[in-house]
Every structure is written in structure tokens, then in C-alpha cells.
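retry 2 of 3: previous attempt timed out while embedding NAP. Reduced batch size to 1 and resubmitted. Inputs unchanged:
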Amino acid sequence: MGAFVKIVIASICVGYVAVKWNRPSFDPESLRGARVLVTGASSGIGEQMAYHYARFGAQIVITARREKVLQQVTEKCLSLGAQKGLFISGDMSTESDPDKVVDFALEKLGGLDYLVLNHIGVTRFAMWDGDVDHVKWLMKVNFLSYIQMAWRALPSLEQSKGSLVVVSSLLGKMPNPFTLPYSSTKFALNGFFGSLYHELAMKKSNVSISICTLGLIDTDSAMDKVRGVTNIPAYPATEAALNIIITGATRQLDLYYPWFTQVVTLIKDWFPSMINYFIQNSYNYIP
Ligand SMILES: NC(=O)c1ccc[n+]([C@@H]2O[C@H](COP(=O)([O-])OP(=O)(O)OC[C@H]3O[C@@H](n4cnc5c(N)ncnc54)[C@H](OP(=O)(O)O)[C@@H]3O)[C@@H](O)[C@H]2O)c1
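retry 2 succeeded.
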């Protein structure tokens, strides 16, 4: 291994340890009674976040489209210790539901301390087939509804010194095959909320923004897509969910989970050929 590569790897390791060392500590008590809205909470990471918030004694509103499932998740939240548990169904591809859901949470909880934007629309894991309408639709669900809800909740978050938590993906930082529409929506999220972070800081706003970059997580919907297609390791949804919550509660800008997603993000611009080779060879694809 050349001296330059060794120095680069050593610098990344030192930088990584320094960043981890400086992380503020998490006080679970800070979430007792916190007023939280979690989107996409009928399954996967959102559902796990709802259960964690419940164990911390938060007041929770959850949303997604399937009312029956939301009801079951809410009942479990109450049994786990949530101070309040409410649900409202909503379809984030519509014009009106993003506002309707935020208004419901504001009214029922008397304001918000955390808005956790996590939902995603269903999309295929396949090569791009030219379906522009699908990209437009997915942009509505995965991106436009996020900015609509954030804008609606900002005055309340400003008042409560609250937090806006955005669940994004490594695929919003690093282009990959088979996920073009999804990846585009996640790049858009990173661009918008990364820029909003600067504007809020310049306005000396009380609101913190956390942008969570996740690698492959073992939710049913993700595993159904990649099973047999890639050997990239999948990490537990419950641990991803807890890390997202802690990142929001400690008002940190970034989460990279699992940890190596940060390393990949850092080195992708320095060694593009190596990363591109790795990406193209990590999927079983026969033309
Ligand atoms: N799993 C991974 O490998 C992975 C990796 C990186 C990032 N992430 C990110 O983590 C977050 C959660 O992913 P996940 O794997 O947990 O997803 P998931 O299990 O598929 O859950 C998606 C949630 O969104 C809801 N939803 C779907 N369409 C909707 C619509 N039109 N309007 C409102 N809600 C809708 C679903 O409920 P209903 O069907 O009831 O509406 C469900 O609650 C996403 O932001 C995703 O991009 C996941």
C-alpha cells in the first residue's frame, strides 16, 4: 500500500474518532413528554421509531396510509409507555394530506417538539425504464411532501426549540443503479434540507435539523427488493431507528448509520474509479 493511501486512511480514522468523541451525550429523559410526529410509521424504521419514542415516554402522533396498521402500532406504543398515542392516515402524494397531518398533530399535541420525516412511496428496484410520471409521483411523496410538512411545522418548532429530522439514504449521496427515481428524491432532500440548515443557522433559528444517511437496513420492504441481488450487509431497523432518535434529540446535523456509510461518502470523490467498480460489482446483474 502506498504512503499516500496510508496517510489518507489514517486521516479518515483519526477524523472519524475525533468526530465520535465530540458527540453530545443523549439524555433519555429529554424525550419524556416530548411531542413527536413520525411519518411512515406503519412499518419498517418508522414503526421502530414509534416504539422507541413510546419507551422514552413521548407523546406521539404517527401517520401512513394504512389505518388498521396504524391503529395496531398506536396500541403497542401506548402499552410500551407513550404518554399519548394518536394516529392519522394520510397519502403523501396528495396536495392536502401533508398539511392535514401536521395540523392534526399540532392540534392534538398542542404543538410539536419533533417532526420526523421518514415515509417513502413504493418504487421498483430495477433499471430505469423511462417512466417520467413515476418519478414525478415519487418526488411528491418522498420530497415535496417533506418540504410542505416542514414548512407547516416550522413556527411551532421555532417556539418549542424543536427539531426537524429527515431520514435520507446513502443513495442520496452516491448514485447507484436500479434506484434512479428513489435516489433522485433523496438527493433532492439532502440539497433542500442541507441548504435550509444554513438559512436557519444564519437566522439564528431555534430549530435544529438532522439529516440521517442510512445504508441498507433490514426492513421487509428493502429486503424483498435486494434479496438475491446483492450481498451488501443489512443492519437492524430497530438500531437504525434508535440512532435517528438520538441524533434528533442531541440536535446533531448528521447521522451516518452504519458507520462505514460516512467513510464511503468521504472517499467516493477521491477514488471514484474504485468506488464505481465496487458499486457495479456489488449487484448480481446479467445483461
Ligand atoms: N430500509 C433501508 O434499507 C433504507 C436504507 C436507506 C434509507 N432508508 C430510509 O428509511 C426510511 C424508512 O424506510 P423503510 O425501509 O422503513 O420503509 P418502509 O418499511 O417501506 O416504510 C415506508 C412507510 O411509508 C409509508 N408510505 C408509503 N407510501 C406512502 C404514501 N403515499 N403516503 C404516506 N405514507 C406512505 C408506509 O406505510 P403505508 O403503506 O401504510 O402508507 C410505511 O409506513 C425511508 O426514508 C428510506 O428512504 C431505508
